[in-house]
């Protein structure tokens, strides 16, 4: 496969800002190897699962008005759209790699900056991260500060939060990669920094914005939510045992609905906690790898290691795991999926016509 050239001592294709560090001598051309073909197979498989799975999630959420109206579902819808687009761009950049052209025109410049850098792919990956943080914050306020959530949160503000995740992603990618991309000698070159200090600062800022700060927020919020729910359960149990029998019988009349609502809320929190845990597990390997590259701990030879290949596959796999989590853990989604499946199955069954004996036609 012919592709663009990598000039060692420049940066190329980092997961945090579209660039990664290499150090060495002369430019080399990327060639297709058996390992490349294996990686392509992984990418095609991951992207196919991601597209199919997230489309199913969107069908379920858009088909059921009760789920669609919830604030949490708005963030989950955006998460599924972003993950589906991530899978789509992963598939497209895998089957349509850079074509080895000589870069001369404005169209070539756009192709270099937009497609060779995989700009839309990293944009969606970063948006997925920011949306997960926004979703977690919304649930955190709902559980830990319910009065504030009731007064301050509404659908318009939730949509503004969703729009902000896209704005942050566009801003991060434009500022983190575009200034370091240019065309020289007919080649698309990326990650040219004025000094090592600029390169280091870029790496640290990117690492913090796309990984360290998000996972810190996730861990803190879910830790506080778990503590709040545990404390609430303990308090409820204590109050229940101290109530008189008559009062308890009166209170029991309103229990079924409130218990179902509380159970559904806990199930959502548990589901999103699993989603966040998988996000951390899938992304940590690659983020730390590139952080060490930026620090100079690893050089370009690290990109030929199996660990690097594993870290890339794990990172991309994050776009296809959430639908499986919803199907296995999210009870409301499971019920919605069953309803839609039964609706489709019933619609596909032809109604049978039964003739009465008097209407039967016989022939001799």
UniProtKB/TrEMBL annotation:
Listed InterPro entries? GPCR_Rhodpsn, GPCR_Rhodpsn_7TM
Question: Would you say which domain of life the source belongs to?
Answer: Eukaryota
One GO MF term on file is: G protein-coupled receptor activity
Pfam families this protein is in? Answer: 7tm_1
Compartment list = Membrane
Where would one find coiled-coil regions in this protein? Answer: none
* Signal sequence bounds: none
A cellular-component GO term for this protein: membrane
SUPFAM superfamilies assigned? Family A G protein-coupled receptor-like (SSF81321)
- Name the residues that span the membrane: 42-62, 74-96, 119-137, 158-183, 203-222, 268-286, 306-328
Please classify the protein's predominant subcellular localization into one broad category: membrane
Cross-referenced Gene3D superfamilies: Rhodopsin 7-helix transmembrane proteins (1.20.1070.10)
Ranges for domain G-protein coupled receptors family 1 profile come to 53-326
Annotated keywords: G-protein coupled receptor, Membrane, Receptor, Transducer, Transmembrane, Transmembrane helix
Concerning PANTHER family, the annotation shows: TRACE AMINE-ASSOCIATED RECEPTOR 13C-LIKE, TRACE AMINE-ASSOCIATED RECEPTOR 19N-RELATED
Tell me its family.
Answer: Belongs to the G-protein coupled receptor 1 family.
Listed name of the protein? G-protein coupled receptors family 1 profile domain-containing protein
Q: Which organism is it from?
A: Paralvinella palmiformis
């Amino acid at each position: 496969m012919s592709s663009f050239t990598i000039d060692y001592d420049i940066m190329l294709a980092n997961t945090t800002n579209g660039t990664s560090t290499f150090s060495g001598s002369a430019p080399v051309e990327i060639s297709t190897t058996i390992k490349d073909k294996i990686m392509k197979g992984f990418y095609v498989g991951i992207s196919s699962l991601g597209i199919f799975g997230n489309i199913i999630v969107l069908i379920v959420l858009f088909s059921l008005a009760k789920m669609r109206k919830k604030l949490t579902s708005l963030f989950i819808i955006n998460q599924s759209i972003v993950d589906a687009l991530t899978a789509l761009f992963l598939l497209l950049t895998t089957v349509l790699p850079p074509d080895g052209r000589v870069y001369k025109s404005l169209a070539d410049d756009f192709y270099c900056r937009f497609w060779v850098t995989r700009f839309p792919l990293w944009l969606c990956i970063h948006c997925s991260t920011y949306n997960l943080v926004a979703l977690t914050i919304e649930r955190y306020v709902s559980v830990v500060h319910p009065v504030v959530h009731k007064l301050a949160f509404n659908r318009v503000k939730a949509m503004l939060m969703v729009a902000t995740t896209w704005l942050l992603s566009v801003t991060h990618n434009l500022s983190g990669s575009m200034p370091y991309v240019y065309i020289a000698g007919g080649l698309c070159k990326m990650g040219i920094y004025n000094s090592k200090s600029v390169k280091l600062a870029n790496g640290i800022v990117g690492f913090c914005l796309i990984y360290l700060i998000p996972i810190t927020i996730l861990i803190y919020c879910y830790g506080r939510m778990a503590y709040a729910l545990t404390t609430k359960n303990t308090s409820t149990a204590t109050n229940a045992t101290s109530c008189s029998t008559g009062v308890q019988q009166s209170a029991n009349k309103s229990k079924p609905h409130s218990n179902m609502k509380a159970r559904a809320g806990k199930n959502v929190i548990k589901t999103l906690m699993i989603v966040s845990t998988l996000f951390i597990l899938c992304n940590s390997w690659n983020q730390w790898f590139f952080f060490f590259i930026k620090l100079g701990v690893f050089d370009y030879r690290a990109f030929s290691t199996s660990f690097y290949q594993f870290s890339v596959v794990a990172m991309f796999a994050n776009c296809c795991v959430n639908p499986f989590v919803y199907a296995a853990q999210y009870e409301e989604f499971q019920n919605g999926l069953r309803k839609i499946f039964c609706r489709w199955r019933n619609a596909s069954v032809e109604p049978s016509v039964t003739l009465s004996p008097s209407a039967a036609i016989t022939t001799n």
